[in-house]
Amino acid sequence: MSARSTLAPVNYRPLIHYAPRANWMNDPNGLLYYQGLYHLYYQYNPQGDTHGHMHWGRATSPDLIHWAEHDIALHEHEHEIFSGSAVVDWHNTSGFGKTGDVPLVACYTGHTQHNQAQFLAYSLDGGERWTPHPETVLDMSKKDFRDPKVFWHEPSGQWIMAIVHPNERQIELFRSPDLHHWTSLSVFGPAGVTEGIWEVPELFPVQDDAGQIYWVMKVDFNPGGLFGGSGAQYWLGEFNGVTFTPTTEARWVDHGKDFYAALTWNELPERRVWIAWMNNWQYAQQVPTPGQRGMMSLPRELRVVHTQGGPRLAQCPVLELQQLRQDSRPLQVHTPIEAGQALELQLSWEAHIPLELEFHSAAGLECRVAISPTELSLTRPSTDLTSALPGYTGTHRAPLQPLTARQDLRLFLDTCSIEVFANGGCSVISDLLYPAQPIREVILRSPDLSAANLHAEVWTLK
Ligand code: FRU
User: Which atom of ligand 1 is least distant from the CA of 199?
Assistant: First the structure.
């Protein structure tokens, strides 16, 4: 590679996605909605731009869109602070509360080279300062046993934890009355994709539009992803307080390469929202943003929709994103774009007509999104900058069966990412995208644009 091509001519700092100011970030952790604020903790290495020395970094937001980065919440000590979750312990079951305080309690994996065990930490000031509790609450003397996701299960009046045995490709469910004492309930797996180790499980309820509740079991794996590297799958099913019983096959969470370790917010009333680390373990430590690596996806609201192939999870970017829209314009066959901006595109048209969107810079084609009556796809061409990233170049495909006679597509383009939601949020592709030059034009193609009855808008997002 020539010296010139190793210098990125583009500022890849995301405009509408969370990324810490500097250093390495991976999984979201401890997602909690409390006192009107969204709390986001995350895997963070304050010492560099690759994985290691895991701490919990911290950010908060009033609206899931504007994030403030804060001081580190949990520091590496005898162990690194690996992934986990946080709860509001309203009734002080943990005993961490002092006279009337409601403790926030985090449950995370303490990682050393030879052992992974689960620990608690608590905050009495709404999530700013955390006190680690010295004793482990769940230790099976295993090298790999991690990523506890804890939630309050109202019907059985107890805490439930989903935690993963990565090498066995199993998720174990535990229960506890007080967050300190955990009793095994059941084991799920191996199932679905078992090629790679399993990580970051979650069990949570989601509703369909009629209000019927489905339980979702989600797990990530590495490798075994649809297009190489890491990926994620889920099952819909039933949970009776003891056992999760799937009623669907395993399905892909996302048909792109960069949506990993998604977790949902605890304590969020009326809707279920998740966010993921927008990356892939295949190349995460080499992405061309030295000094700062790792960003979050856009937050997405989840619901279950019924398709010909049965019920499935649909993901839609949260409504709050609409507040970023500036100066709406119709999308033309050639639409010029101001360099260095984030964009949203929204299209609807007759579902039997295929359509393509091309994103061009001064250097040429940077990305192609195509949608036909049977498939959504996204192509990342090779560039000087990205040819060294293993598994970056290629086409990512999502099968599709139009839900209605009109197709819908929403697309979010940021400085180094693209997220495409089609068919009511049933087909989603999330990819990092490092254009060689800033994108300056969107080109729309279709073999029969006149029959498409297209409505297409583009917004700059600020
Ligand atoms: C997933 C993961 C978790 C682990 C954390 C370490 O990306 O490997 O299993 O807890 O990251 O940073």
Answer: 9
Is the distance from the beta carbon of residue 109 to the nearest atom of ligand 1 less than 6 Å? yes
Tokens (6 digits) for 456:
């297409």
What are 202's two structure tokens?
Answer: 């979650």
Q: Taking the complete model, does pTM exceed 0.70, yes or no?
A: yes
Contact in structure between 172 and 165 (CB atoms under 8 Å): yes
Angle at 219 between CA 191 and CA 234, to 5 degrees: 70
Q: Is the CB of 146 under 6 A from ligand 1?
A: yes
What pLDDT does 62 receive? 98
27 CB near ligand 1 (under 6 Å): yes
Is the predicted pLDDT of residue 1 greater than 60, yes or no?
Answer: no
Q: Which residue is listed with tokens 């009107």?
A: 36
Catalytic residues: 27
* DSSP character at residue 322: G
Which residues are within 8 A (CB) of 398 and not within 5 positions of it... i.e. 6 or more apart?
A: 252, 255, 375, 376, 377, 422, 427, 428, 429
Residues above pLDDT 90, as percent of the chain: 96
Given the DSSP bridges, would you call strands 55-61 and 68-74 parallel, antiparallel or unpaired?
antiparallel
Kindly report the protein residue whose alpha carbon is nearest to atom 6 of ligand 1.
82
At residue 146, the pLDDT reads 98
Give 3-state DSSP helix, strand, coil % of the chain, rounded to 5.
5, 55, 40
> Rounded to an integer, what distance in angstroms lies between the CA atom of residue 78 and that of residue 86?
21
- pLDDT for 443-461, tens place per residue? 999 999 999 999 999 999 9
Decide if 449 contacts 290 (C-beta within 8 A). Answer: no
Which atom of ligand 1 is nearest to 146's Cα? 10
Split at pLDDT 50, 70, 90, the class of 285 is very high
